[in-house]
Amino acid sequence: MTADTDVATADSPAAGNRDPRRRTSASAPSATSRILLTAGLAVAAIYFLFPVYWLVIAATKSRDDLFGTSGVTLSDPQLLTNLRAVVEYNGGIFGRWALNSLLYSGVGAVVATVLSIAAGYCLAKFTFRGREALFNVFLAGVMIPGTALALPLFLLFSRLGLVNTYWAVLLPALVSPFGAYLGRIYATAAVPDSLLEAARLDGAGEFRIFATIVLRLMAPAAVTVLLFQFIGIWNNFFLPLIMLSDPDLYPMTLGLFSWNSVTDRAPELYTAVIAGALLSVVPLMIAIVSLQRFWRAGLTEGSVKG
Amino acid sequence: MTTQTSTQAPGTPARPRTAAPNRRGRRLAILGLLGPFTLLFAATIALPIFYALYESLTGVERSGPLGRGTTSTIFVGLSNFADALSDEAFVASLGRVLLFAVVQVPVMIVLATALALMLDAASARGVRFFRSAYFLPYGIPGVIASLLWGFLYTPGLSPVVDLAQAVGLQADFLGADNVLWSIANIVTWQYAGYNMLVIIAQLKSIDPDLFEAASIDGASAWQVVTRIKLPLIRPAIVLTTVFTIIGTLQLFGEPLILRPLTGSITSTYTPNLAAYNEAFANNNYNLAAAESVLLALVACAFSFGFLKLVNRSEK
After folding, report:
1. Does A12 sit within 8 Å of B220, measured CB to CB?
2. What is the reported pTM?
3. Distance from CA of A29 to the nearest CA of B (A)
4. Which of B299, B300, B298, B289 is nearest to B50 (CA)?
5. DSSP A26
6. CA nearest A211 in B: which residue?
7. Among A166, B36, B159, B248, which residue has the least CB neighbours within 10 Å?
8. Chain segment B134-165, per-residue pLDDT in tens
9. Reported confidence tier of residue B69, pLDDT bands at 50, 70, 90
10. What is the pLDDT of residues A81-122, one digit of tens each?
11. B90: pLDDT confidence band, cut at 50, 70 and 90?
């Protein structure tokens, strides 16, 4: 902002001399509007953060305190007791769910990213018959929500005997049409033809070119796809719900849901659901906030240029 | 590197000789780079769609005494669709999500746009914190978000209900008239920050010279917003709106999780719930498939309709 103002002063010294402050009125609001603005932002922050605050407080309470005391203040905190109860419940099944979530999201996101970036690069830099048609089919895939596909996938997988296996959740996670779309846009802009040509003249094979040059140039797009895919799989609920019946295969979301749906019969699970929710949310919240800039970088490429 | 290319280029004899293996290499490369993705796309996206269409057009015919004999699959035309559309509960569920979308989508998009513009106008201090705070719920799985808000809607457990009662308000978040909007609140809470981020990304891409020119012309902050920022972030707003429309019509997890807390959510509350119920409670996969296809068609019609509306008003 300051740099811009300096440039303007240099460009039009007359205007600058007359009233140097007035000109910045568009970018720097007055004191009252600044207070109003901050107040508005703060109110919004309370809305978005309050449930998380409640979760943190509630996770420290015993079952009696959970129902007997105010939800906004601490009372006799016993966070560690609650967390231990979650981790130890039912032979440590929660830990298994956490590992399952990590497996589905980690493997799914990494494979999906590599495959979709390769596809996007190929669609950008190689010409062949049917290329545009194929790209349009993939683009249509971006518009189809996961829940619309879950039921047909279940019908299909039950014919193939894949239902209630790791593959039932993992296989659909390996595809990211959005990744192919973003990959193509990004490759068009970020991978210079001359570089590819030079590598080919040096005798490098196409796959080596992809692995050593292209993947590195497309890293920002790849990180964005990776994050989206990871979050998408981690948060997925419908697909595991209909595909899995063995609790040993559950991801955390489904596991907590299964606990929550029996709380009327097993009220001790109330505290377990809340503390478990906190446990499952914290790592992702840290990741979300610390990786924010990658998020925005990718969105700029994907939404704005597209 | 570029010099190398240009020195080799003019009619060198090396070119035609390498052309033949090069072409085969390229074909192999295309297969290798595009093949795995295309195969998986076909298996997990294209094939299920065709399979759903097939299921929706067929039915199971039982023969023998009391229908206990052999079963066979027969083509039934559009009768599953007719059944779905003559089922009052299913049609009501479609109407419910459409009403939901008509209210929730504009509210959330306006909120996301307002937050993005406010953050853009605020001074640098605190912006990072606020942006992170708004985006945070996006990282919370829908199941957890629904559980969380479910607790916050429950009288006796929720400080929000307590607070409302202290002020003399009767807050009944789970009543028949309110529960749809309680679900809308969960969805808005989760995704407003994400949509805000998309809009911020586009705001950042606006050429700073435009603001410079505007301030020289003496434009007020409000004029900058309405005349420059809003028109230029329009593509991001359109994009987020389309994706939000598609998403809201798919409503499933939130009502399923709130269901035990209230009597007002039926097993056919939303089209996805109805299809789920049809498939797993009634074992009628054919009708469930028809309902899924209908929902996808409605979502498609609405998002394309919106795009068309936007494009027309642009001209």
Report:
1. no
2. 0.82
3. 7
4. B289
5. G
6. B33
7. A166
8. 988 988 888 889 988 988 888 877 777 777 77
9. low
10. 888 888 888 888 999 999 999 999 999 999 999 999 999 999
11. very high
Question: Given an 8 Å threshold on Cβ–Cβ distance, is B134 in contact with A200?
Answer: no
User: Exposed/middle/buried for A201, CB within 10 Å: 0-12, 13-18, 19+?
Assistant: middle
Q: CA of B84, closest CA in chain A: separation in Å?
A: 16
Q: What tokens were used for A293? A: 């800039």
SS3 assignment, position B299: helix
Maximum average pLDDT range among A18-22, A188-192, B110-114, B235-239: B110-114
- CA nearest B252 in A: which residue? A238
Which amino acid appears at position A202 of this protein? Answer: D
The answer to whether B34 and B40 have CB atoms below 8 angstroms apart is: no
What token pair was written down for B237?
A: 């707003």
**Contact call for A41 and B119, based on CB within 8 A:** yes
Q: Does B229 touch chain A (CB under 8 A)?
A: no
Which DSSP letter does residue A73 get? S
CB–CB of A55/A63 below 8 Å? no
For residue A250 the two structure tokens come to 């559950």
- Pairwise CB contact (< 8 Å): A237 & B140: no
Looking at this predicted complex, what is its ipTM?
0.82
Query: Sign (positive/negative) of CA torsion B5, B9, B10, B14?
Result: positive
Q: What is the pLDDT of residues B207-241, one digit of tens each?
A: 888 888 888 888 888 888 888 899 888 888 888 89
**Contact yes or no for B77/B57 (Cβ under 8 A):** yes
